[in-house]
Specification:
Layout: H1 2-7, H2 27-37, E1 41-43, H3 51-61, E2 66-68, H4 79-87, E3 91-92, H5 96-102, H6 125-131, H7 141-148, H8 152-164, E4 168-170, E5 176-178
Parallel strand pairs: 1-2, 2-3
Antiparallel strand pairs: 4-5
Helix pairs in contact: 2-3, 6-8
Length: 180
């Protein structure tokens, strides 16, 4: 994987010498670096003792904006984000705009990661299914949930990706519209 990352122009940052195995006890140091290099940290899921929560603790120590996506209360993988929100340590993540506004980017930023024309063929089947329900008129989350037949967590994740790719945006009323 190291060679593949470097061959594609990527960067490897580590406190360990080249060739050091990725062993579990090395992960906290990696998470500290990830947090340090990030403008904000978003915790999507993880139990209280997970790597995601280690990263969240580093974000707090480093004074990084920390966001959490709530999940089902009966899922152990939601314990981490839910407790961050409940304790007030992590901000509730409702939209990608929450992160952009916190880091000072606002709505003027378009995170088109491919630097190419926006085309629907860059979307997964789930994303295409959701996108077909969204047009220039605001669609509520509840309507999209019924029409897409996805779980709440799946829909939140896919809507966030569609926002990041520049296909949709969240309205001030909480609905979603297509970006023309």
């Amino acid at each position: 994987m190291y060679d593949e990352i470097v061959d594609k122009g990527g960067l490897i940052i580590s406190e360990y010498p080249v060739g050091t195995e990725g062993l579990p006890w090395n992960f906290p140091q990696r998470n500290r670096i990830i947090s340090a290099l990030s403008n904000a940290v978003v915790i999507v899921e993880g139990d209280l003792q997970s790597g995601a929560m280690i990263t969240a603790r580093f974000a707090i120590k480093q004074s990084k904006p920390l966001f959490a996506l709530p999940g089902p209360i009966d899922s152990p993988q939601s314990n981490g984000p839910n407790i961050l929100i409940k304790s007030g340590v992590g901000e509730l993540l409702v939209s990608v705009n929450d992160v952009l506004e916190k880091i000072g980017e606002g709505k003027q930023v378009n995170l088109n990661l491919n630097n190419s024309r926006r085309e629907e063929d860059r979307l997964t089947e789930k994303q295409k299914n959701i996108y077909k329900y969204i047009d220039s008129y605001s669609r509520s989350f509840d309507n999209l949930l019924k029409e897409s037949k996805l779980t709440t967590q799946e829909l939140l994740c896919e809507l966030s990706i569609l926002e990041l790719k520049g296909f949709i945006e969240k309205t001030t009323e909480g609905g979603y519209v297509s970006v023309s």
